[in-house]
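ok so i was messing around last nite and threw this chain in just to see what happens. nothing serious, just curious
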Amino acid sequence: MATRTQARVAPWKKQEVQELVDLLREHSVVGVARIDSLPSQQFQEVRATVRDQAQIRVGRNSLIERAIDELEDERDDLADIKPFISGQTALILSNENPFNLFTTVEESKQNAPANPGDVAPKDIWVEEGDTPFDPGPVVGDLQKAGLPAKIEGGKVVISEDELVAEEGDEIGADLADALSRLEIHPMIVGLDLRAVWEEGTVFDRDTLDVDQEAFVDDLGAAHGRARALAVEVAYPAASVLPELVSSSAAEARSLALEAEYPASDIVDEILARGHSQALALAGQLPDEALSEDVQDQLGAQQAQPTPEPDTEDEDDTEAEEAEDEDDDEGEGEGEGEEVSEEEAAEGLGEMFG
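result:
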């Protein structure tokens, strides 16, 4: 009878999977990054840059996926990050906020020279100006790469700004050599963080790539608008309750004063207002109709100094009065003096015989 033999798994693979499982358990945030075009030296520099916030682990894609499968019952939806595993992959393991982790990884990227066949990550310009080269065959090499190079004043110069490659263009060998000789390093090398998993949620690159300062500004503006709306509709949110209570108290006090409602905290003000109104009325009566006490209060009130008038207002008033007088004089010109009743009667008698 034939017997089936079970494939033997290399011990180092088992150990690798177990180490990955342990790392995944120890960290609450798991990122997947590609490192295909990242030179070894830059990779070590990036690893040192992010060391305080994350641990980077490179492994075979099949072993990484196997480790993720091992945690299927422990880590909710961690398998959702598997579609982002492609090419040469590195796991970024951290306990940092995913957005802060993405920012740290992006800031660790560096510029590097272009190699033939690289794709321009953005428009590449060569600016007008001097080059470090003396006249020679280099002029032809630069021109072959599409640069407007010429000899001027004993130096090789670029005669005008030149767009040598647009974003997405493949960089040829001649252009790559010319850019390198001009010390123009257009390529950006670093970890290509594709996605980050945290507590059952996978954030892709587009979600993570946000301007955090602009986001905070927008959040502050939205909070201000929400607060103003809550105050407007008297919504009793905890943050606006003190303002609502203060505003309501002021409105209630104003209404009570208007209606002369004798609330305990405004009785004195109502009485003072009534007293002032009574004195104003008493001032219209003859002295013999008033008691001595009322006369004394009126005398004290009249003895209070009156505020000095604004001289500018007086000047303006005088000027207006002078203009009015001039207008009156102008209107009276040619009309003659006012006719008396006797003169009018005499005139009528003459008209009607």
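not much to say yet. The CA atoms of residues 127 and 218 lie 37 Å apart.
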